[in-house]
Amino acid sequence: VxxxxxxxxxxxxxxxxxxxxxxxxxxxxxxxxxxxxxxAGKSTTMRMMLxxxxxxxxxxxxxxxxxxxxxxxxRQVGALLEAGAVHPGRSxxxxxxxxxxxxxxxxxxxxxxxxxxxxxxxxxxRVKGFSLGMGQRLGIAAxxxxxxxxxxxxxxxxxxxxxxxxxxxxxxxxxxxxxRTVFVSSHLMSEMALTAERLIVIGxxxxxxxxxxxxxxxxx
Length: 220
Ligand code: ADP
Ligand code: ADP
Description:
Elements: E1 4-13, E2 16-26, E3 31-35, H1 42-49, E4 57-62, E5 65-66, E6 77-80, H2 92-102, H3 108-116, H4 132-144, E7 150-154, H5 162-177, E8 181-186, H6 189-195, E9 198-203, E10 206-212, H7 213-219
Parallel strand pairs: 3-8, 3-9, 6-7, 7-8
Antiparallel strand pairs: 1-2, 1-4, 4-5, 9-10
Bound molecules: adenosine-5'-diphosphate (ADP) (2 copies).
């Protein structure tokens, strides 16, 4: 049973075709990788999956219906996007507290996710002073806050040290093992080979392959 269905999805920006008729599904219980070079259309696709951007054509269904970014969305779909908006003067704790309150998530959950991502000790520090890795951990804490069954991660390991990369990789595998639907983008095949079971490969906004990681390595 696919949880996410992308159907003939397209996005044009003026003369640029960012996403060009993509069709694929994402299933629960495994990590599905979204592989393609920079500029291939991965972020644009993920923003449309989250209803942050309107498709030029086609649609995205999550659990059979169109996902709408309404109050409470963090309980259905959690996401780590590139350049996630965090007020730099806020502490990690206050950022998550604000997200919890605006999504009607119990505030006790804030402490739990801070522990989970290893930020409990710096929760009172301003986000302004955070390293890239700490910022990624905070973004992941926000994605996990509502305990959502569906998780989208856009280039989560970009700019991280090996320890951070391994941590995120194991986290994604653990979330999938719990039965969640995990969809993660990367421009690195080496990273996808270590993280994902299934692969959706795109280039210039078009589907190039929809296969297992093993099948992709054999074919290319
Ligand atoms: P990826 O995430 O795979 O690197 P993107 O989805 O960011 O790719 O970009 C796909 C294409 O769409 C690129 O050519 C990019 O320049 C273009 N693009 C993305 N967002 C915008 C935007 N807001 N306005 C104009 N062009 C955009
Ligand atoms: P404020 O900074 O708004 O005054 P408080 O320090 O009074 O907030 O804490 C408000 C609530 O948040 C309390 O229930 C407290 O236990 C909890 N809390 C405080 N610090 C943290 C933290 N680092 N992580 C998670 N919860 C915390």
